[in-house]
Write a structure and sequence with these properties.
The protein is α/β, with parallel strands linked by helices. It has two domains: 203 residues, TIM Barrel; 56 residues, DNA polymerase, domain 1. The protein is 44% helix and 17% strand. The protein is globular.
């Protein structure tokens, strides 16, 4: 059993790197990819723990990108070796973009009559402060009853408090991942076009033409019908296949590492080996 999509408390998860590795070992994972948003500090911290435990640890990243006006998440994997310094410096630029969005989000919430400071939110964040950390402060202050309520009222794209982040073009993200020795994979495609499969097929075809190398077929949000269709898209457009739980710890309590939402996930072990074959030399 493997899991190629997980998050630590260095982005918007709640498990430390050590705790995440320990959980992977406890449930019997043979390979784990840490795919924190815009940062590799969680992966860096996990390396010695994984080495000591004999767990195969894959370096990954999750990026928020823009494609035809739509927000699309892109996974990047570095199965042979971690990316060079140039790529990490680019990630630092993306983190600053997040900080700018966070400052604007604070202003927006204050304008709605919610007394909140960036310092309060950053107390929950580590390397990266994201919307789940805002949600926890909103819960603490009594403005939301739980994470879902916080997003529904203030943080989701359709909520009254939402502030747009300046996402990077997906073409740039694909190119940077490839040039850094990585493999790009379209994350949780069900969130892009819901179940409008003809629209998604058009998108995936265009992204494949832009250099996309894989698609996340297996995910906690995907039904058996989704999985079957995404496998057909991978075959149709000659893409690799990835999969993972998208584990966030207590921030997504229904999702378990390795097994997804109510045991709906079983990522084939062979996918970890196939990742390396997708790297462009």
């Amino acid at each position: 059993m493997i899991d190629l999509h997980s998050h630590t408390d260095r982005s918007d998860g709640t498990f430390t790197a050590a705790e995440l590795v320990a959980e992977a070992v406890r449930i019997g994972l043979t390979a784990l990819a840490i795919t924190d948003h815009d940062t590799m500090s969680g992966y860096d911290l996990a390396v010695p723990y994984a080495k000591q435990a004999g767990l195969r640890l894959i370096c990954g990243i999750e990026l928020s990108t823009k494609f035809q006006g739509v927000s699309v998440h892109l996974l990047g994997y570095f199965p042979v070796e971690p990316p060079p310094t140039e790529f990490r410096e680019w990630l630092s630029f993306l983190l600053e973009s997040r900080r700018d969005r966070n400052r604007r989000l604070i202003d927006r919430l204050v304008s709605l009559g919610i007394p909140i400071t960036l310092e309060e939110v950053e107390a929950y964040g580590k390397t990266l402060t994201a919307r789940p950390h805002f949600a926890r402060v909103l819960i603490d202050k009594g403005y939301a009853k739980d994470m879902q309520d916080a997003f529904d009222q203030y943080l989701d794209e359709k909520s009254r408090g939402y502030v747009q982040r300046h996402d990077i073009p997906i073409q740039e993200a694909i190119d940077r991942i490839r040039n850094a020795g990585g493999v790009s994979s379209l994350a949780h495609p069900v969130r892009i076009a819901k179940n409008h499969w003809d629209v998604l097929a058009k998108y995936v075809g265009e992204l494949a033409g832009m250099g996309l190398q894989a698609i996340e077929v297996f995910h906690s949000d995907h039904s058996p019908e989704n999985v079957s269709y995404y496998l057909s898209l991978a075959k149709r457009f000659n893409l690799g296949v990835t999969g993972g739980s998208d584990f966030h710890g207590a921030n997504k309590p229904l999702i378990s590492l390795g097994t997804g939402c109510r045991n709906n996930l079983n990522v084939p072990d062979a996918l970890a080996e196939e990742l390396a074959s997708l790297v462009v030399v």
